[in-house]
Amino acid sequence: MFLTISTTGSAQRPATDLGHLLHKHPEKAQAFSTSYGTAHVLYPEADAERCTAALLLEVDAVALVRRGKGKGRGGAPDAALAQYVNDRPYAASSLLAVALGSVFSSAMRGVCKARPELPDTPRPLRIEVPALPARGGADLVRRLFEPLGWTVGAEPVPLDTEFPGWGDSRYIRLTLRATDLTLAEALRHLYVLLPVLDDAKHYWVSPDEVDKLLRAGDGWLAGHPERELITRRYLSHRWSLTRQAKERLELVRLAEADDSEVEDFDNAVEPEAEDEEKPTPLAVRRREAILGVLRASGAARVLDLGCGQGQLVQALLKDPAFTEIVGVDVSMRALTIASRRLKLDRMGERQASRVTLLQGSLAYTDKRLKGYDAAVLSEVIEHLDLPRLPALEYAVFGAARPRTVCVTTPNVEYNVRWESLPAGHVRHGDHRFEWTREEFRGWARTVAERHGYAVEFLPVGPDDPEVGPPTQMAVFQLGTPKEAKAA
Amino acid sequence: MTTTDITTAAARGRALPVTDLSLVVLIGASGSGKSTFARRHFKPTEVISSDFCRGLVADDENDQSASRDAFDVLHYIAGKRLAAGRRTVVDATSVQQEARRQLIDLARQHDVLPIAIVLDVPEEVCAERNAARTDRADMPRRVIRRHTRELRRSLRHLEREGFRKVHVLRGVEEVEHATVVTEKRFNDLTHLTGPFDVIGDVHGCSSELEALLGKLGYADGVHPEGRTAVFVGDLVDRGPDSPGVLRRVMAMVKSGNALCVPGNHENKFGRYLKGRKVQLTHGLAETVEQMEGESEEFRAEVREFVEGLVSHYVLDGGSLVVCHAGLPEKYHGRTSGRVRSHALYGDTTGETDEFGLPVRYPWAEDYRGRAAVVYGHTPVPEATWLNNTICLDTGAVFGGKLTALRWPERELVDVPAERVWYEPVRPLRTEAPGGHEGRPLDLADVHGRRVVETRHMGRVAVREENAAAALEVMSRFALDPRLLPYLPPTMAPTATSQLDGYLEHPVEAFARYEQDGVARVVCEEKHMGSRAVALVCRDAGVAAGRFGAAGGGTGSLYTRTGRPFFDDADVTEEILGRLRTAAGEAGLWDDLETDWLLLDAELMPWSLKASGLLRTQYAAVGAAAGAVFPPALAALEGAAARGVDVGELLTRQRERASAAAGFTDAYRRYCWTTDGLEGVRLAPFQILAVQGRSLAALPHDRQLALIDRMVEHDATGLLRTTRRLYVDTADAESVRAGVDWWLEMTGRGGEGMVVKPVDALARDGAGRLVQPGIKCRGREYLRIVYGPEYTRPENLARLRSRFLGHKQSLALREYALGLEALDRLADGEPLWRVHEPVFAVLALESEPVDPRL
What's the CATH number for B189-416? Predict the structure, then answer.
């Protein structure tokens, strides 16, 4: 909510020209009302040698929360607690950028009627932002500002000096220095990059402001090496938030009831996976292997248990041999994305009649899942706490009892071959366990025996002679005579 | 019947018996008077006419082209009524066999009796009546002629088609004067309330039967208190004295001291007695041999007795169903071949086991009915409840015991077998049929929109989207439902204070309770930590036996969304161990006659569980404020020094800076570093339930006394006491003391307090539940909730318009669900019944409500 802009000068080129450039008189403290509170401009120092303008935005936190509320149940605000106790009144967030744009609009456009030559002349500039929220840290701050000609000082603010163990906060004490930039350029950089670094869930930014932000990038954004990141951060927050906020509110509330972060609960879908699908080669191999197993089994009616965002369902739809495809997932968000991916609402009737998406849970038996030819559990079991695995086992092999069951899971032995994976780490934050080949086979054989299935194992991905394949797969067949005898 | 009777009957017209739950098919040509007949003898809602359905689908009751759709609608409505157990009368011509076949199928599908009432009226009469009706005036005569012809042709084979009763009314007169007499079904004995003693499979063990009857208090087949014995069948075969058992049971039934349903063994024996060819296997040979010494008269009596047995009985207002082999709910009180077959033989999967015996379908696992089903048929070592069903066949004839269930007391009484009378083909299973370890609950028990019946607040609804969120959390993060018998309800804050500088203040809470007629309240210190529920078992055996805990665990410790508190099971066990020791040292196991405790508690510090949230949200706000104010204030001071007028702005920023510092201080009080369990504190404040009892209604003073004993006996320093103060809501002095106590506590940084009725489960003058507790949070603490600067007058003024209604309603609904879960747990109800309200609490927690409340 606070930043300062300073310049130096001499008797010939007085620093106080800054007042002309900003259209704000150095001897006055002026207040401007903006959408999010009152912005004040004042000069702690102003003489020929040094002049500093300070912008202080008094964010009205209470009004911020009440904005757009007042409907629904008794007018009670229906939003995440994170909105009530938040850093908006203190941090140099997107709100400050908006204030900057409105209070210094002429300066940002490079207009100065009294002294038309001033705006185009670069001058020594020093900008200080004491609390800049920066997702990506000091490193990203440098990557964003340095290519634009700034000398960057970026010093992380500790979270709480009484608890050094908590480490640094996401705030940076930012100092920018430059000699060959104009003030208008400087302001436009800030106007765009403050919200990019903030990267917060600013539910309250209206769409047209985003257009304004993009206009401000004119002249420098196109050539910026981080252009993609800059645009992506804007765009993703612009259109997805209002819609998604709605979808996940129930989970947000449950997380809050538990004093937990929303991300601890609403993490069934990886954030990156949502925007664009860039399947990893292993995911493709896995899908091919599964399709191979299903085709070989002659299955026509198939369950994809834990279908996630529906990639496998999509692949199955392309093969008319699969006459009925049911995708089941416990995450409503995953199902929404799957439905969007499959374009279910626009699909022809005949095609649509082949596919169903259901919310379901393998921690419970489910009568709707009985009587299918095959079921796939691809990268599913490792997302369950081990003590709850017997429930899944019974729900699938005891209750649903499809003829063929195809289970894939990571082979933890292979993890040493992933260069990017630190030793002892699982491949995904939500993996509750990862098994060796022996562990997986032991489990699969016990399950098969208990429920009257035969089981065989197939590698997926390169089968390393030492550590095996990256993904291991078990294919269960119901009541194969050989196995029945063994049982 | 005497002659007079016949005369009167004739004068009255014929009386047509019609079963109370049946599908009545009226058969007659167009114009034969079916609708008039139906109107006269049945409730308007019982009757569905094809004309009406034609009107529904085609706007014209006579549009014959719409017949197919109209009958679809008719069958659909009739099906819904029959499924709900309501008699249904079909008013259509039904003169064609195909039309009747569909209706008979429908009746069978819903296991009700199809009954035909034929209105055989002369063709001329029909034609005249139709001519008199404007909408049917142009109906061709040949249509009526065809109807009449088809009707006549049908008459002979109606019974063969499957109608269980056929009433043919000939001529206008007979139709005119007939009356319908509603008959109860044979299996409907709901009016009998017992009390009952339901007795398991006897199998000719006469001596054990006499011993059991004696133990139950019967003297020569009569109970002095008028109790009724109910036999679940399989009286005969295998054992030493089937005739003796029959003699006793038949006499008791005859004298009205007993009821009896048939077992598969009676059924087969009955066929033998009727001279059918049956194989003398499974112990029938023994019975046949024993019967040889009996008189022909006795044999005839037995034959008649067996023939007259009704497949199952619905007793005691519908809360008790007795049959031989178990019965799913949709068959209760129904009448059809398959109902009888299920009642006698049960359901099988079609497979056979290693002993060549059919594998029985575990119907009891799927059972979700309200009525208790008491049955026998499958020998088990112990009679145990599963989903409100119990099998009483404890294998007396195989050397087990003969068991009876006292109803409604639900007490088991048994006598051991005198010896092994018959060698079993396979050993008795170690578990009740279908009661398998580790089988999960069914999704249908929790999914979608649901209504949970609670004893303290009636029906509580759960919306679909909330159930969906709960399903996700319950499946992905929560503990096994068996170790999660309760979730704590949310709590409403006190009404908003108008006192200067305060958003919440205890005065309103005391006033509220006084208004609700609650005289004595307890103020309990609110520990700022994380809510924790602890299930503490006396040992791993109890945990496994009562709660199905696997792997040697002795209970659970979980958060308010059912997640395990610690990822490391050893840490959980360490805490449970300390609680167990404290409870033991304090003598709670013996005093409460239990081997497990369910505790509601607060686990501290807050930073232990909420560290993620603290870092990303609370400390972050403090850090941003801490970083921004010094340079901002310096800038303002610089400008002021230059003579720029920044007076008010500077003052305000200083105030804001100090508010932000207050915020940081506020959250810091609830954070401290821990190492293992070093520094961890647990403050239990209520014992929710123990073996066989919910303690939710135990007054809080007695609750706290029990807990104090635990805290005193904890040598490890883990347990913390909860400070408290009792207040009389009508006494101004006492209220002032309560306020002072709160001011003192919150002034030192305390979170605040919870005010509760001392009597725990309290109701207001109108009999409604009152809030089980009202929280009054401290002024400084609320900075964490409403933001650092909420105390600024302009902020407080706006924040005061907050709406508590939804939060209060939510708190009460969740409270009622929590009480329900505890009651069900204490009553030993099936897991799905306990899980249902627990799941509902989690679902309600995702309802939209101001999270700051």
Answer: 3.60.21.10
